[in-house]
Amino acid sequence: MDSLWKDLRFGVRTLLRSPAVTALALLTLALGIGANTAIFSVVSGVLLEPLAFPRPDELVVVIDSAPKLGFPQFSASPPNFKDWREQNQVFSSLDAMARGRFTLTAKGAQPQAVAGAEVTGDFFRTLGVRPHLGRLLAPADDRPGGERVAVLSHELWHRRFGGDPGILNRRITIDGRAHTVVGVAPPALKFPRQSELWVPLALDFSKSSRGAHYLSVVGRLKPGVSLERAQADLSAIARRLELQYPAQNTDWGVVLTRLRDVMVRDIRPALTMLQRAVWVVLLIACANVANLLLARMGSREREIAVRTALGAGRLRLARQIIAESVILFAAGGALGLLVALWGTRTLVALNPDAIPRAEGIGIDARVLVYTLLISVATGVVFGLVPALSAIGGRLSGALKEGGRAMAGGRRGNLVRDVLVIGEVALALMLLVGAGLLIQSFARLQSVDPGFKPRGVITAQVSLPAVKYPDDPRQAAFFQHALERIRSLPGVQHAASIYPLPLSSGSGFQLSFVVAGRPVPKPGEEQSAHVRFISPDYFRTMEIPALKGRAFTEQDGIDDQRVAVVNREMASRIWPGVDPLGQRLTFGDPTQPTAKWMTVVGVVADVRGSNLGNESEMELYCSQYQNPSSEAALVVRTAADPLSLVAPIRRALQEIDGDLPLDKVQTMEQVVSSSLAQNRVKTVLLGIFAALALVLAAVGVYGLVSFSVAQRTHEIGIRIALGARRVEVLAMIIRQGMKLIAIGLAVGLGGAFASSRLLADQVYKVSVVDPLTYIGVPVVLTAVALLANWLPARRATRVDPLAALRSE
């Protein structure tokens, strides 16, 4: 231990004797380790950190699934949930929830829209959480007609009620109804995501339809029950339900997934890709530092040779050199933590809504251990390179006055060449990946959504059932509100829609039956994305009408029901036939309550759910004929759309003072938000690729600079014997570019072999895109040529006499 401590102290002194080399190495390592640690901190917080619930691996999400119908993962219907809960043998508890937004009102305060959920009585017990204050919901609360109670999130309690401990048993107004606050949830609880308020679901199963899928189901497995056994048990129940209720359950199965996997499934591929990218950056940084250490060995050849001649063992010398490397890498890791601290905050701030469990991301003990391990491990591994080179040199040659440097011998040169080839290859692979993602993102941005977002403001409105309990009152409110908004100065058009395109929850699908055709067998129904719109919606969004007409104010509740379809639906359902006048209905057409709609128009396709998805069948229904308590207002203006927010809010307050405007944003922001995860992924990979390019260029520059310094005597002789300086320049560049060419060849092969990893990450771009595979090597070659040219140009300015005298 004493000798190791001496080695470490000697290593520190040695590093301080070369401050420039040490500073460059520390900067390189800080960037490489810092980027790696920043991404790992996100991976740790999102993918590795256990859920903040007791025994989190027992928590499972139960999902309805009908792949043959186009619904591989779907919400559950209340009757199916009831049967799962009563018939299963594997869950200690099974609960349902329906996410939503509630309007919280109080005297003297502005109404506020709050994200929350309606949950069954055992929901909190299933999760295993305890209240911060009071109690949580219980089964006795979860019954139709029961007392209305609520649980507040810790954040909402502080934000809205100032953290008042007297909040318990206080009456608050939610969606126009008085509720009693029975408890405050613990600070960490925001499940389902971003929820701040929980009320009883109070399902009335006698009035629930088996075809109405809107519940999310979460359960806790009994101790010792595996996911596979639970899947088999629920699948058996699903088969029984299929036989018992063929009209609604044919081809419907069940999929079980651990809760943690469900929460992170959308971001896992992107994080995995970024983790691989930063490992590449770290390898390039380490190769650069190894090259620096190799070059420094040249200036210490006589020192090492003398110590060897005086009896120092090669193992002891190697240990000392590795100790120096570990010290350097550990110091780089410490600086990298500062880079990671800033980088982690920046990563989360880029788009916190796109990162689940973002509140748990930070530099914690796991991240510190990870940084320590990669610092020490890379220090040992890459410290072996100069150590082996140094102890492998010839003693007699090193002791001669003009002997060749050990680090500059053939073995040292070969190692440096291999490291630079590896840097170039890795940088090219990363640049190819970034190039593909950049192209993909550019194509996504250029996708025509089917409407004109510029100049449109949108806001969500939710009507409380207590004030607007029936269809006529809901329809009347939106009719009155839109008339009032259209009268505002600067408003060109105004309409309402549910659900809003490209927003969360925009995937609303219903099966339909066409008049005059056989009723589809169970499991063979066709479905379309359904949107409920007011008159003037197509004009407000500037969606081209192709045939027929749009809805008018005369299409009211008591009038003949009408519908508008998009081009995709018209061509698929009525190929070669005029869709106008065709009739269809939702659900079972044999029932006397079936409501038939007549197609009166055809409009252009809209990318309703995702810009990256191809056009899907969409069916528009009149909102006045099919009223709902929730809709998004869309208002077009020639001025700044945000300037209308205050006037629209005042107009609604004049109609109903208890209604808040929720999710206020421009349609350009809606479109941009739909690309948020793609944008973050592309920007980060682009930054890492640029960093890899810079580090590779530094590596090439360092190699050529060292080669020039090593060959100063030779270059002086060449010039003295009549070699032209341009010939010397060409000789050095040619030798450097040979390594670049090898690195490019290896990198292209590696990029091609790993391209399949990006297949699911790009949009309408081939993973072997010729433009990328040609353009990236050209850029890398140009940068490498510059890195070669700078030290080569310095070599041509060598004074022959000075070079010869130095020997």
What does this protein look like?
The two termini are 43 Å apart. The radius of gyration is 34 Å and the shape is elongated. A six-stranded mixed β-barrel has the order 3-4-9-6-8-7. Strands 14-15-20-17-19-18 form a six-stranded mixed β-barrel. It contains 24 helices and 22 strands. Helix 2 runs antiparallel to helix 9 and helix 9 packs parallel to helix 12. By secondary structure, the protein is α+β, with helices and mostly antiparallel strands. The longest helix has 37 residues, at 314-350. The model is unreliable at 395-399 and 401-408 (pLDDT under 50). It has three domains: 2-46 and 271-445 and 677-805, no CATH class; 97-207, no CATH class; 468-655, no CATH class.
Supply the number of structural domains: 3
Radius of gyration: 34 Å
Number of strands: 22
- From the N-terminal CA to the C-terminal CA, the straight-line distance is 43 Å
Question: Helical region count?
Answer: 24
Q: What overall geometry do the principal axes of the alpha carbons give? A: elongated
Which runs of at least 5 residues are low in confidence (pLDDT < 50)? Answer: 395-399, 401-408
| Helical residues, percent | 40-55%
Class computed from helices, strands and strand pairing: alpha+beta
Strand content: 15-25%
Strand order of the largest sheet: 3-4-9-6-8-7
Tell me, rounded to a whole number, the average pLDDT. 84
Mind summarizing the main beta sheet? Answer: 6 strands, mixed, barrel
Fill in the keyword field for this structure.
alpha+beta, 807 residues, elongated, 3 domains, 22 strands, single chain, 24 helices, 49% helix, six-stranded mixed beta barrel, six-stranded mixed barrel
